[in-house]
Amino acid sequence: MGPSSCRKTSSGLPLILYYGDVFVLFGPFLPGMEQSIEQTTEILLCLSPAEVANLKEGINFVRNKSTGKDYILYKSKSHLRACKNMCKHQGGLFIKDIEDLDGRSVRCTKHNWKLDMSTMKYINPPGSFCQDELVVEKNEENGLLFLELNPPNPWDSEPRSPEDLAFGEVQITYLTHACMDLKLGDKRMVFDPWLIGPAFARGWWLLHEPPSDWLERLYQADLIYISHMHSDHLSYPTLKKVAGRRPDIPIYVGNTERPVFWNLKRSGVQLTNINIVPFGIWQQVDKNLRFMILMDGVHPEMDTCIIVEYKGHKILNTVDCTRPNGGRLPMKVDLMMSDFAGGASGFPMTFSGGKFTEEWKAQFIKTERKKLLNYKARLVKDLQPRIYCPFAGYFVESHPSDKYIKETNIKNDPNELNNLIKKNSDVLTWTPRPGATLDLGRMLKDPTDRKGIIEPPEGTKIYKDSWDFGPYLRILNAAVGDEIFRHSCWIKEYFTWAGFKDYNLVVRIRSRVDVIRHVVKHGLLWDDLYIGFQTRLQRDPDVYHHLFWNHFQIKLPLTPPNWKSFLMYCG
């Protein structure tokens, strides 16, 4: 999907692109934003696949031979962490700490300061600094890139002091899953509206019953933020409803490598006011309200998070980001919300053979969910928000054909996370229910105020007990008998179009025929197959091929295969 025309206004407004009938704005650059600099990433070091293979568990000292700059990488079974080899105290060089029997810390040659590389916190002197962390990312060749975000803390530009909030001035209403309706003075902002239909083909369905007035709330929104292209955040069925009355509703997304709305034209949804904004720049809505979109450190090509600020009060929504902003986030915000549940992957439920016994899968899921719970609790403790809300995990595999997935894919309990947070910190917590409203002004003044959180009326239906499967399954089934699949050479045509090559790999994947044919016909990403639990996989040897999955989940062409030409040729 390429732009048919573009222009820059004489007033200094940002680039405007026209995608067919769709108006796309890069900006907006409003008064007070001219001094801001877009957040960028700089590659400090690139390790080849051979160098990556030689990394040992624990601490690794590495050097960029071109620049002479030194770095430290800590490798564990679960993650990689990296930083510059420079003490934050006075810039001294770190060396191996021979007194550390666990192999986690390094010692500064200047003043013997010690840094625990597994946590990026200084342990001597204790309670002093945290080390600035680099983003570690895999490249196309299975090597590693060390990336630095610049500026690292863009929210500190043009700081504002918090002003007193009147009761009712800032209200946050939970609708479903990752969808929040924010009243901010006389403006309304909505996050990630998924209110009807499935996500990931037919694999995910809403756990919660949306409030009865959800559509009217969306109609009244002044702006909508959509964090990324996954269909539990970018829900075309939901947006189609909104576009029926308000096709020009302002929608804001980050300037990701894979455009969030890459499939808009073929979705049939008529939206004419999509705004693509640069990372790390305040977007001014009115004199009191602004927001800033940040990239994810692990998936910068597709994932984003957001900071909303009203009268100096910050709301941080990290959504699904694995390492939002490379792990650097504002501390002591007024409200923080994040995902918590886990289970947003086909691994290991859709795998079988070899080690993938039911016992192994159950233990793996239990361990991974506990690790996620502890990570979120630790993150909240470190950031010290006034209030924390777990969301973006309220989905269920409700179709009867996915009974096994539903029973196996155990998710974290938000109340368990909140109890863990309260045990280790003074942070207030909020487990949201559909239609519940948090009054930020009241909660900041008196957390015990009974009107600080207004729950939905007694008798309100909280959990869905039925889903309208039919219309959505019919859309998928329409591809099953398509003429394309009468010709066996469609497989070669599809994978040639996909562009994945120069990689020696034999793939055997079983998929539900309606979903795989729908994905192939329309040139969709494989998230519908993998995250949507629509595949059954065996792998021998048991190796995760990052390049393959990353390509089919993120890097497929933006335009679908030319099946019309294919049929003419085959005919």
Automatic annotation (TrEMBL):
Pathway: Amino-sugar metabolism; N-acetylneuraminate metabolism. One of its GO terms (cellular component) is cytoplasm. It catalyses: CMP-N-acetyl-beta-neuraminate + 2 Fe(II)-[cytochrome b5] + O2 + 2 H(+) = CMP-N-glycoloyl-beta-neuraminate + 2 Fe(III)-[cytochrome b5] + H2O. Keywords: 2Fe-2S, Cytoplasm, Electron transport, Iron, Iron-sulfur, Metal-binding, Oxidoreductase, Transport. One of its GO terms (molecular function) is metal ion binding. Transmembrane segments: none annotated. It is found in: Cytoplasm. The keyword Cytoplasm applies. Sialic acids are components of carbohydrate chains of glycoconjugates and are involved in cell-cell recognition and cell-pathogen interactions. Catalyzes the conversion of CMP-N-acetylneuraminic acid (CMP-Neu5Ac) into its hydroxylated derivative CMP-N-glycolylneuraminic acid (CMP-Neu5Gc), a sialic acid abundantly expressed at the surface of many cells. PANTHER family: CYTIDINE MONOPHOSPHATE-N-ACETYLNEURAMINIC ACID HYDROXYLASE, INACTIVE CYTIDINE MONOPHOSPHATE-N-ACETYLNEURAMINIC ACID HYDROXYLASE. This is Cytidine monophosphate-N-acetylneuraminic acid hydroxylase. It comes from Delphinapterus leucas (Beluga whale).
